[in-house]
Amino acid sequence: MDFGNILTAMVTPFDANGQIDFDKTTELIEYLLDNGSEGLVVGGTTGESPVLTKDEKIALISHTVKTVNNRVPVIAGTGSNSTQASIELTNEAEKSGADGIMLVVPYYNKPNQEGLYRHFAAIASETGLPVMLYNVPGRSVVNLNSETTIKLSKINNIVSVKEASGNLDQIADIIERTDDDFSVYSGEDSMTLPMLSIGADGAVSVVSHIAGLELKEMVTKFQSGDVTDAASIHRKLLPIMNRLFAQPSPVPIKTALNMKGIDVGSVRLPLVSLTDFERENLRRLIES
């Protein structure tokens, strides 16, 4: 499965009452597709999946699939810390027409590597969709190590990993020891270019919401051998990449989108809006 180079981990737009706003979601999808996104990840961390109900997730996946209408791949975030719940949501995503699923490392439970292997293998065995693993130890506490990822890559429909460990040695080991058709994506915007340099395929990005064309240009230049210009774009994007994670995500990126006139509403508790000071700092950076 070719998911593309730049996938956007899409925010979930809410209305003034904190409910999913599907009209705003349609507008956001069209904006993202016009601005460099080659695939969309819906219902992931940036989409505030922990505070969406199962029914909301299904409705959001279905709406995104219908709106995209096969123009780019739609990957549904169906992972959780419950294997059975993940299987059930995965089945619904498949019925909705998603092109793939993304499975986060189970959080809070703190399983060992054998538990991680069995968790992902069990979900993959219940679907015909291609599976992207998502390793984000900063949120899940547990790291999906390279040996387990490599072992999981032998399962036919586990085809990719979104790596947000920040461990380039681990990521290089995965790239070296998996088949060429197993794709590796950066799960941290600031790590995209370093990961490309060791053989990664692209990024599942947050900054692509507001700098998608620039990020796509960086990847294209690197892949064409223009490393100097790619590095220059990376350096220019780095301050905004870092600012978008200076407060809990997706609060900053939703704020930035609203500042740019792309209405996505606020966030749900336990997340809260930026302070006036934080908003002003973000505004200055975006304008610059």
Automatic annotation (TrEMBL):
EC number from the UniProt entry: 4.3.3.7
Protein name according to UniProt: 4-hydroxy-tetrahydrodipicolinate synthase
Residues involved in pyruvate binding: 46, 204
Pathway noted in the entry: Amino-acid biosynthesis; L-lysine biosynthesis via DAP pathway; (S)-tetrahydrodipicolinate from L-aspartate: step 3/4
Keyword NADP assigned: no
A molecular-function term among this protein's GO annotations: 4-hydroxy-tetrahydrodipicolinate synthase activity
Catalytic activity: L-aspartate 4-semialdehyde + pyruvate = (2S,4S)-4-hydroxy-2,3,4,5-tetrahydrodipicolinate + H2O + H(+)
Active site: 134 (proton donor/acceptor), 162 (schiff-base intermediate with substrate)
Sequence similarity: Belongs to the DapA family.
Biological process, per Gene Ontology: diaminopimelate biosynthetic process; lysine biosynthetic process via diaminopimelate
Annotated localization: Cytoplasm
Pfam families hit by this protein: DHDPS
Classification via HAMAP family: DapA
Major enzyme class: lyase
Biological source species: Lentibacillus halodurans
PANTHER family: 4-HYDROXY-2-OXOGLUTARATE ALDOLASE, MITOCHONDRIAL, DIHYDRODIPICOLINATE SYNTHASE
